[in-house]
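My current task is to audit a protein record that another person submitted. Thanks in advance; the entry in question is below:
***
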Amino acid sequence: MKNEFLDLLAEEVVRCGTYAKERQGSVLRSFKNDGTVITEVDMTISDRLTSFIKAHLPEVNIISEEAIDPFDDEAPYTFVIDPIDGTDGYSQGLPTWAVAVGILDKERNPVGAMISAPRMGLGVDNLFVRLDPGKELLLNGKPFSPNLPKDTMHQVAMSSNGHRFCDFSNFHGKIRVFGSAILHLLAPVIYPEIQGAMNSSVFVWDFCAAHAVLCHFGYRLLYEDGQRVTYTDRLLKERKNTGRFILAGTIAGVVDLQRKIKVADR
């Protein structure tokens, strides 16, 4: 994959984030058949990013939350798009949302990410994460490494319905809820005092981009039973959700997270 294309893709993702930010104050929300929120901005960004990638790399797979395309097992890369992760909060004017593009290689390993969260950041009103395959991670254009160690859970980012399914009796720290799975899973990497993340049942576009960032720094993304999250046909071709919680953190951190916050049988 050429650097020139990745530079152009980064610019387009940033433009999409800026567009979503500018439209947020006047956006109208509606509902899909499954009851989840959607806006016209979701559809516009999905179309923009899908068309952009197809125009430059017609041989790759594209999986978008808002569009269905055929999947080719021989494609060199798969791009996984969430046009707006955190649409519910976005549609209400909250800042906790992101435009996310994850990149899988032919073996379905998460190897790249472009994430624009223009109303989030580290002391500034902007967050753009860029991870080109095989390159260093850039945060707002500058090389970034996480604040380590993060092996003991004191603060955990969690999905908004996590309280319904988890036992917190062994956890005496703090829960941070953003309403965006991508931002939850990024949090242990980019925010200095958040050590882990948990999300209930999610789709591949809800975590792929953040998963690439986690893998880049040696973090783990596991299911509640301890199995590693992998990119199965169920997730990519059948477009089904995980059906269970996913947990993120360092190798030791995920163990501590499983010990302190237990997912209830259901």
Summary: The longest strand covers residues 77-85. Residues 120 and 221 are 23 Å apart (CA to CA).
